[in-house]
Amino acid sequence: MRRSKFDEQSPAFQFYAGDYISDPRRLKRPLESQGAYVLLYCHCWISKIIEFDFEIMSKMCNCRLEKIQKIWPTIEDMFVKKIIENKEYLICIEAEEERRVQTLNRKKRSNAGKKG
Fold first, then answer.
1. Residue 79's CB: how many other CB atoms inside 10 A?
2. What is the pLDDT of residue 25?
């Protein structure tokens, strides 16, 4: 059964360069941390959640296990942990906010189209 238009996952998210480079929280992070964050954000965007497992995360970031374990403390504040069936998962805070905004905008456009 096909999901409703409101439940469909957008294949893309808005990435505002000005917002990214002007956010002091990000600018204070090392370059490797910024790269790992963007890759994990992308995986969260596609899957909505990712398993909190350093081995899996290291593969997602194309780095050694030790590297992601070192990077993680510098980016963990950008994620929320959630336990599902005794497994720990990560949800990217900004990805969820972008998803919420996209859903709201899609509903507004749909309602405007129905009126017009």
1. 23
2. 82
